[in-house]
Amino acid sequence: MRRLPIRRSQLVGTNGPGSLIVSPEGETAIIGALDYWFTKEAEQEKNRVEFEIFEPRLKGFLGVKKLYMPPDYRRAHEDVTNANLTIPLLRFPLWHYCPFCKDMYELDYKVETARKFCETCNNQRYLKQVPFIIVCKKGHISDFPWREWVHNNDRTECNGILKLNTNGGSTLDSWSVKCSCGDARSLKGITSNRKNNLGASVLSEELNIDNRRFTCSGHKAWCADEKEGCDENPVAILRNSINVYLPQKVNIISLPGEKNQNVDILLDYLKRQTSVLSIIEGQSTFEEKVKVLYDAVQVNIKVSREDCEKTILYMFGDVSTESKEESTSLMNLRDKEFEKLQYSIDEPYLKVQEEWIDTREDAAVYAGNYKRFFKRINRVTKLRETTALAGFKRLNQIEEGSTEKFDYDYNLIYQKKVPDNEKWLPAYSVFGEGIFIQFNLNEIQEWEGKEEVQEYYKNYLKRISGMRHFMPEIIENPRNLMMHTLSHLIIEEIANTSGYSMASIRERLFVNENQAAILIYTSAGDVEGTFGGLVRLGRKEKFFHLIDKAFANSQWCSSDPVCTELGITKGQGLHNANGAACYNCAHLPETSCEVGNMYLDRRLISDATYGFFDL
């Protein structure tokens, strides 16, 4: 494939390893594995230092040695380091067809152009890629088995010329494949699963005429010809479908040391002394890590051993087995963020200003009837968010029939199995601003204790039982759905008045047992921060007007009474995980919501019986 420009943020998201990208000419390619993101000249660690992102909390959580920004392309020139670095692109799918005679050809993944001599047309033609590919839930992706399908046999030896025909209809019935041997077959059903056999696809059950099950080939097309064993049932899918690639990303807010100036000094030291950091990362126990750091800084920095222990705890957490098992939750990663955002901070990467606190004398002047529902409003005038790509899914981000926690499979984005001490993940950092909103926990607990609320929520949990949850903590109590829905409604109002588009504003939920807060922020700025339109709306003179509008919007949807009635009876949205919430009232762009526009219900905000805000 020819070279294509692409943003770094896309490479740590929708266009990560294993994803499909389309050129301006309409040709599709697949992004190569991480093994090939740096050329041989840049394989040495010293050449990658300029791409490294120093974010110890995120590295510790993900269990990787390094976080690197995707390499940018630089033309070779005197004094230019890391020149000519590119991200590998491989042609995919490999099957093409002539737009004139419909003959099918299988090209090599290294071919840069689809221009080929067509024997039937007796002329040079630009071939088109076939629209269908096959994927499985384990992340594999491969070409549709055209020969096998048309011959009803996955062991066919026929090498006849294939033709891909369509009569212009809008269904799969209008597509068919024909072989020069005379066999022909419609593509009807290739994208379907059996209703009476969860997990089995029409493709796997009907490809063979003798009903022999057809399974996934285990092909990792982003690793060229790499294959591995797989017994999943593959499903055909349009190559431009949104669920071909679902990135698994983890993001955190950069924090200063634990209110300890010496910890910040040590963190800054390790950011500069990468050789010391590498030695620390190579140690297996907490005590060994502390000893290496303490010995390294004795000459130049006057700090205590306790400061070194706090620094290692901040970077890696407790490295014991028990604590590692407890820290696998995304919410546990945010505990420190919650602690920091409650108070004033003035650090290079995080600046927080206290704006409104419920205990101040003038609190009711600005908040009015909303005073008892909130505890604190802080304006975050500057923050740094770091996002890492930890893997990807295909078909479904969240699967039915499973209650397992969200997990990451690093092996998918590598071709070869990488030792733990060599693992790295692509990441990028951006700066932004936000508003931190903390609710009154006493009011929330009193509301959750109401019999009507408990009964309503019990019915909701019964409806979504059996599904897998991206963020399991969010369904533990009604408050989280209420806060999540209010967050969406506030973002809609902010987008109308701040100058930021809705897609550039995001939410961050703090939903552990003793937390009840949300951070609404934008990460669309540069190293100096953003223009301040969002934080200005966090001023106490303006913020509660936003709350008032959000509350009003929660009472009515343009799709009512349908939206509300669906929320009460059977739910709506993906897996019916939403109550009274739809595209017309509470859904946000994909980039804004943490959990895919699920776990929303307007009734928990303003309903006369179940609503938190009983105004």
Task: Outline the structure in words.
The protein is an alpha+beta fold. The protein folds into three domains: 91-246, no CATH class; 255-317; 327-385 and 428-606, no CATH class. Helices cover 27% and strands 20% of the residues. The protein is built from 20 helices and 22 strands. The strands form six sheets. Strands 3, 16, 17, 18, 19, 20, 21 and 22 form an eight-stranded mixed β-sheet that branches. It has a three-stranded antiparallel β-sheet with strand order 1-2-4, with no helix packed on it. Strand 12 and strand 13 (175-179) form a beta hairpin. Residues 486-585 form the MrfA-like Zn-binding domain. This is DUF1998 domain-containing protein. InterPro entries: DrmB, MZB.
- How much is the radius of gyration in Å? 27 Å
Shape by Cα distribution: globular
SS field, number of helical segments:
20
Total DSSP E strands: 22
Strand proportion: 15-25%
Oligomer: single chain
For the sheet with most strands, the description reads: 8 strands, mixed
Helix content: 25-40%
Count of the domains: 3
Organism: Bacillus wiedmannii
Domain MrfA-like Zn-binding: 486-585
InterPro entries: DrmB (IPR047721), MZB (IPR018973)
Protein name: DUF1998 domain-containing protein
